[in-house]
Design brief:
Elements (H helix, E strand, L loop, with lengths): L2 H4 L8 H37 L3 H15 L3 H13 L14 H13 L1 H22 L4 H13 L6 E7 L5 E7 L3 H6 L2 E2 L6 H8 L3 E3 L18 E8 L2 E9 L8 H17 L13 H6 L5 E6 L6 E6 L1 H6 L11 H4 L4 H14 L3 E6 L11 E8 L4 E7 L4 H11 L3 E7 L5 E3 L1 H7 L22 H12 L5 E8 L5 E13 L2 E11 L1 H38 L7 E3 L2 E8 L8 E9 L5 E11 L1 H18 L5 H14 L6 E9 L4 E7 L5 E4 L2 E4 L19 E4 L5 E5 L11 H13 L6 H11 L8 E8 L1
Antiparallel strand pairs: 1-2, 1-6, 2-3, 4-5, 5-6, 7-8, 7-11, 9-10, 10-11, 12-13, 12-16, 14-15, 15-16, 17-18, 18-27, 19-20, 20-21, 21-22, 22-25, 23-24, 23-26, 26-27
Helix pairs in contact: 2-3, 2-4, 2-6, 3-4, 4-6, 6-7, 6-10, 7-10, 19-20
């Protein structure tokens, strides 16, 4: 089905709002049930007391009476309670079953005083409903509305005011129903003025009936001076704790039945007067101010102990947003706006702590399909230590959205010049770009030259010429000089506005590109430095490689020495910057012996290479002294300690004597050599000695290994066996197996095969020396 066939998408059901509506309806039903039960319990209590019935018998008797009189049980219960408490129309309660006299009298009384009984019933219903609202956590305003709607509106009353008496005899408005917020804000406090009507009733404890209103000199709550009023004292335990004031739209004859009904309703009013939290601040003048706004607004107050946000007031558009909740004012914010609660709590807390307004485009920030409608363009304003005001729109405001988009695009600001009226308009960001006070007079584009660098006025003139003479859109970049002395690089992009071929205006944007300009300069300088650094690094690495290759050739030729064949291989690191300090040496000595060495300087780079050169050359010179490998290593340790950079190194130094085919060797923390004999490979465990350059005056033990014709000895560095995924022992095990799998071949072929079969994964360089006994 296409969109034209289906029509626009209808908004889906709001499950959260439906749940709140359902809970509100359940609460109202609960209150009605509590009120009904309260009235029935009172009536049953009267029957139990008067006729010695049990509770069950009294409830059954009440049901039979209602069925006999063809009225509801609540009506009979109200009449019984009224008869017990004294209102006219019920001289006594009905008799139990089997006693016809009192029941007949009850019926006669009902016939004679039906209207009075109806008034009494209404009063009892209102009293029970008020008690039910108090029991289920209703606010004083809600309970006052229950009393007004259930018992006073049938008498023509307009509003009910409940005042609480303070310790200083001030009267504080605890709750009201029927009056508008502006009236309520005006009568929040009534000081103890001498002779005021309210304080006369407070002191005398006598009701005041004003059927024709008050004089112009004495003001009381109400719509007009001539409107009827009734002021009733509210007593608790014999003490006047407050006042109830009822007003009418105009003059009313307050006859005896009206006075009796109001006096009866004052009793529950006194009981529920303390249901509200005493001392709770009111929104004061905020309420009437918010009511003047055409967009939704509400006042929130944080509980001083728990921090829970409660709604103090909502204006009419905000009430439309909360229409799914009955009586939202006074409720916790989570009950009225559950989907927006978390975001509004965060914004309100930030606004109070920073004492600064908070703005967001939408609440909740993340809105999913099927969620309640979000609040758009939300602004949260702190108005005290515990109170905030929230403003929002019901739909996205295009102008505000466009302003946010422009502000998001690297300080983009809109402007428009009307050439007919001479007026100009700037968006808020334009004032910040030029460093001017917001709300000042915008500067037309044609008069912008004084705000620009003097060298850039020519660019502005060219821009104006394109717009006014050629009437084409264009852009340019200039430097704006701010009043605080700052300099901004500014892109101006503008279009001419034509009406009937006549140029009537110019519109466009200012874009602060200072950050981009500075970034380009910094990137250019950084690029130059990087280029120079790369050139230096390339030269440095080239020198290192040349130096290392000159000392350790990658593919040396097979050497034939006294009683030995020697092949050596060097595999450089995978990356140039990891050029290391591996070295090897095979040197025949004057006494007929052959020096065989492998070593590894810790680290990489030119320092390692220069350290390697120093140790290799030092060992070559020391070998001609004729001393044993242990003594040579001890001297080499001292050389290492005195070498620049204080390197450390591992090494294996051996002297092969062809006369008896013996290899005397010492190790400085190096990996064990591998001996291949008749197809079996073994690791020659070296004597335990410390590495070179660690401590001074170190000694190195020697060991002698007897070789046989055909034996192959392999010396290597750690790049051959080290792995990031396994330990060194596993690498040595792999090397031993690979040596055993080598096919019988020439020494060069076996060296190449071993390098191909075994490799570490640390990208380190590797040295390998293979020696075969002739």
């Amino acid at each position: 089905m296409t969109m034209s066939e289906q029509g626009p998408d209808e908004p889906g059901p709001d499950p959260l709002a439906d749940a709140v509506t359902q809970l509100t309806a359940e609460l109202a039903a609960l209150r009605r049930d509590v009120a009904r039960r309260h009235l029935l319990d009172l009536a049953c209590g009267v029957l139990v007391a008067r006729h010695s019935l049990g509770p069950g018998e009294a409830m059954d008797h009440l049901g039979r009476l209602a069925e006999t009189m063809n009225v509801g049980p609540e009506d009979i219960a109200a009449d019984i309670v009224n008869g017990a408490t004294g209102p006219s129309g019920a001289a006594g309660g009905p008799a139990p079953e089997g006693s016809t006299g009192p029941l007949t009298a009850y019926g006669a009384a009902s016939a004679e005083a039906g209207e009075e009984r109806a008034e009494g019933r209404r009063a009892r219903f209102a009293e029970a409903a008020a008690d039910a609202a108090a029991q289920t956590g209703g606010t004083v305003d809600e309970i006052a509305a229950t009393l007004l709607n259930g018992g006073m509106r049938p008498l023509g009353a307009r509003a009910l005011w409940l005042f609480r008496r303070t310790e200083t005899d001030c009267l504080r408005l605890a709750g009201q129903a029927g009056a508008n917020p502006l009236e309520a804000a005006h009568w929040r406090w009534v000081p103890p003025a001498a002779g005021s009507a309210l304080h006369r009733v407070l002191n005398d404890g006598t009701p005041l009936w004003l059927p024709d209103g008050t004089s112009a000199a004495e003001a009381l709550p109400g719509p007009a001076p001539g409107s009827a009023r009734a002021v009733l004292p509210l007593r608790q335990r014999g003490v006047v704790t407050g006042l109830a004031l009822v007003d009418w739209p105009g003059p009313v004859a307050l006859d005896e039945s009206v006075r009796r009904s109001l006096t009866g309703l004052a009793v529950p009013a006194a009981r529920i007067l303390d249901a509200g939290a005493p001392g709770t601040p009111d929104p004061g003048v905020l309420a009437p101010l918010l009511d003047l706004l055409t967009h939704p607004a509400m006042a929130l107050r944080a509980d001083p102990e728990s921090g829970t946000l409660h709604i103090e007031h909502l204006n009419r558009p905000a009430l439309d947003s909360a229409r799914h909740v009955h009586g939202p004012a006074g409720r916790p914010l989570a009950q009225v706006f559950p989907a927006m609660h978390d975001d509004l709590v965060r914004l309100a807390r930030t606004a109070r702590e920073s004492a600064a307004p908070q703005r967001v485009a939408r609440v909740p920030v993340v809105h999913r399909s099927g969620d309640p409608d979000p609040l758009h363009d939300v602004r949260v304003l702190p108005v005290g230590p515990d109170r905030t005001v929230v403003f929002w729109h019901g739909a996205t405001n295009p102008e505000l959205s466009l302003s946010r988009v422009l502000g998001r695009l690297e300080n983009l600001a809109a402007f428009e010049d009307d050439l007919i009226t001479g007026r100009s308009r700037w968006s808020e960001q334009a004032y910040r770009i030029f460093g001017l006070e917001p709300g000042g007079s915008p500067v037309p584009l044609r008069r912008l030259a004084p705000h620009l660098h003097r060298e850039d006025t020519g660019k502005l003139n060219e821009l104006l010429m394109e717009l006014t003479q050629r009437r084409e859109g264009t852009d340019t970049v200039v430097r704006a000089v701010r009043e605080d002395g700052g300099l901004r690089h500014l892109r101006i992009a503008a279009e001419p506005l034509l009406t009937g071929g006549v140029l009537t205006g110019i519109t466009g944007v200012y874009q602060d590109v200072s950050a981009q300009h500075h970034t380009e300069i910094a990137l250019s300088a950084t690029f130059d430095r990087l280029t120079a650094a790369q050139t230096q690094a390339a030269l440095r690495h080239q020198l290192v490689l040349q130096l290392q290759q000159a000392i350790v050739p990658e593919v040396p030729e097979l050497q034939r020495l006294p009683g030995l064949q020697v092949a050596a291989r060097y595999r450089p690191a995978a990356e140039e910057y990891r050029v290391g300090g591996d070295w090897y040496d095979v040197l025949p000595l004057p006494d007929g012996r052959v020096l065989v060495v492998t070593g590894d300087i810790a680290g990489h780079g030119i320092d390692s290479v220069t350290g390697m050169v120093a140790l290799r050359n030092a060992l070559r010179g020391l070998a001609f002294t004729g001393h044993t490998p242990g003594r040579l290593m001890a001297w080499l340790n001292e050389v290492t300690l005195q070498t620049h950079g204080h390197p450390t190194a591992t090494a294996v130094c051996g002297l092969y004597d062809p006369s008896d085919r013996s290899l005397c060797w010492a190790s400085a923390g190096h990996l064990p050599p591998v001996l291949l004999r008749e197809g079996a490979a073994d690791l020659l465990e070296p004597p335990r000695s410390i590495l070179l350059g660690a401590v001074p005056a170190a000694s190195y033990r020697e060991t002698v290994t007897r070789l046989e014709p055909g034996d192959t000895l392999m010396l290597y560095t750690d790049g051959l066996v080290e792995s990031r995924r396994s330990g060194i022992d596993e690498g040595l095990h792999r090397l031993r197996r690979a040596v055993e799998r080598l096919a019988p071949a020439g020494l060069d072929e076996q060296a190449d095969a071993l390098l191909a079969a075994v490799t570490g994964d640390t990208d380190d360089d590797t040295s390998l020396v293979v020696v075969r006994v002739s």
